[in-house]
Structure formats: C-alpha cells, structure tokens
Amino acid sequence: MKSSYFLDTNLNVIKVNGATGLKVRDQPNLKTEEYIWKQGIILISDMGKMKEFKINISKDNNLNLVIIRPIEKYMDGLFEEIFNFKGLCSNYDEKKIISIS
User: Fold this and answer.
1) Domain residues of the chain, as ranges?
2) How far apart are CA 95 and CA 36, in angstroms?
3) What pLDDT is recorded for position 1?
4) What's the rounded Cα separation, in Å, for the pair 67 and 37?
5) Tell me: the pLDDT tens digits for 18-68?
6) What are residue 66's DSSP bridge partners?
7) DSSP E strands: which ranges in 1-101?
8) Which residues are within 8 A (CB) of 4 and not within 5 positions of it... i.e. 6 or more apart?
9) What secondary structure letter does DSSP report for 79?
10) Taking 50 as the threshold, does the pLDDT of residue 90 lie above it?
11) Could you tell me the pTM of the whole model?
C-alpha cells in the first residue's frame, strides 16, 4: 500500500500522493500552544494542476500523528475540503488542527 503523502522534514514540505489522496481528521482536542510549529507547504494535485498552500506542521509523538494547521486563508475548494472549512472559508480558524494520514 502506498503512503498518501511524503513529508520532507528538511524543507517542511508535504507532498500528497495524487493516486491515493490525503486522509484528514479534525483534532479539536489538541491545542496549538502545546506544539512546536514549523512553517511549511503542502503540495497537492487538483485535476492535474499542482496546488501549494502555506501551512504550519508539527508532530504529536504521543499519538503518533503528523498535524497541520493553516497559516492563511485560501478561497479554494480543495483547501476548504482539507481543513473542512465552509464555502469561502466562512468558518476559517488559524488555530484549527488536523491530522493527516
């Protein structure tokens, strides 16, 4: 089974496998101030076009999770889908944390 993403910890880049997509899960009980965040980007294909979104990346070693949160708002359906934001990012929250797998 192929991994759904590759995390380059030197460049802080998450490249999503276009064949498998990305599995995400909201993590409402995690608090942003409890983690060390590194600014990075997520690269993901959308209908054959590569998109890039600025994000913060961290790890939760206790739960064995890679977690991300948004840095800025993108009026983009794929970005909204990743973070489970409503249309036009009407419920955007820069403290929202999701895990990826």
Assistant:
1) 5-100
2) 13
3) 47
4) 9
5) 878 899 999 999 999 999 999 999 999 998 899 999 999 999 999 999 999
6) 59, 100
7) 5-8, 13-16, 24-26, 38-46, 49-60, 65-70, 98-100
8) 16, 17, 20, 21, 22, 23, 100, 101
9) H
10) yes
11) 0.92
Whole-angstrom CA distances from 62 to 18, 65, 79, 94 are 29, 8, 27, 23
The distance of Cα 39 from the centroid of its chain, to the nearest Å, equals 11
The amino acid that residue 59 corresponds to is: K
Q: Which two tokens stand for residue 61?
A: 């070693």
Specify the pLDDT at position 17. Answer: 86
Nearest CA to 58 out of 88, 31, 93, 77 is that of: 31
Tokens of 25: 């899960």
CA distances from 86 to 7, 73, 89 (A): 27, 12, 5
Give the span between the Cα atoms of 50 and 52, in whole angstroms: 7
Instruction: Answer with the residue of higher pLDDT: 21 or 80.
Output: 80
